[in-house]
Design a protein that fits this description.
alpha/beta, six-stranded parallel β-sheet, four-stranded mixed β-sheet, 33% helix, globular
Amino acid sequence: MIPARGGSKGVPRKNVRPLGGVPLVARTVAAALGAKGVDAVYVSTDDAEIASVARAAGAGVIDRPADISGDKASSESALIHALDVLEARGEPADVLVFLQCTSPFTTSDEIERAVAAIGRDGTVAAFTASPNHGFLWSRAADGSAQGVNHDHTQPRKRRQELEPQYLETGAVYAMDVKAFRAAGHRFCGRTALIEVDTPPVEIDSEADFKVIEAILAKREGAAAPRVPSGIRALVMDFDGVFTDDRVWVDQDGREAVMASRSDGMGLGRLRKLTGIRPLILSKEPNPVVSARGRKLDIEVRQGIDDKLPELDRWLAQHGVTRAETVYIGNDVNDLECMRAVGFAVAPADARPEAKDAAQLVLAAEGGKGALRELCEALIAANPRAG
């Protein structure tokens, strides 16, 4: 569940404001859709535009009443209302994951780890936190400074000798629903701390937006990337893009992979709403590639070691230029194509070399919603989609 109000005073319309070319709420939806153990993703909102962006990103929507949508309304009130709505629909939940889209670096892995903690050793709540190695201070009753995690009256310890301290990131919380309802708040019993290395940043001001745009520019190899309009072709690697880059092999050598239904839905919407022509271009000769292509009615060219010449032949066949093409890849054999086309994209878990070659690095990982995220961004950038 992602609560996202329409009224924001610090940063107007921040939940639908693009960050790195993707609306904040869509970034969080993509991370949630890619997380194992998450069966459904909803956005609770009082705002029509947020609802529209959320649906386009692949989430369901819970209409949030005005009396729990103001500045003073708690997140818990929105969560309990959403649970009530879903139970009334006959969709009760055992575990509730609470995500905040103002934390733009949330990953599918962090969500998965929080979900997996619920029920382990009696745990009913979990949250993400980052290690803090600083010397913490407070004010004593007389106004003087006093050490919190160190005795300032003794010789100073080295930072690594301090007891570990953790800062709540505010990004991911998971709760057993029964325990949450009974307590009425997120820390509803035995709680697990999920240590993450994601920056503990939240967007509450224009200054925050600028800082995080700069971090994205550094991390993603692009300055405020935006999916361009005028795109006519989407070319996709298979392993690590349609899949999470793993393969299951049985005793007879037969291979199987995991793909995302959400990605398939996104590709269907892309073709229907934009007319952008898709192609799967893969080095992998396994029949699973062509089988997925047939399922989605997408042309496949596979077993291709030298991808760029094949890409050029396909583009020429359909009268499309390189500049009108988006290519999404995740590994070193995609680099030549990524550098040749008009706009290159990489999933969140791509090789560093692929991220460096990309104008846009997605919030979602390969096989876990990356293609859905890209398709929705292409739809939003395409005039025909309106």
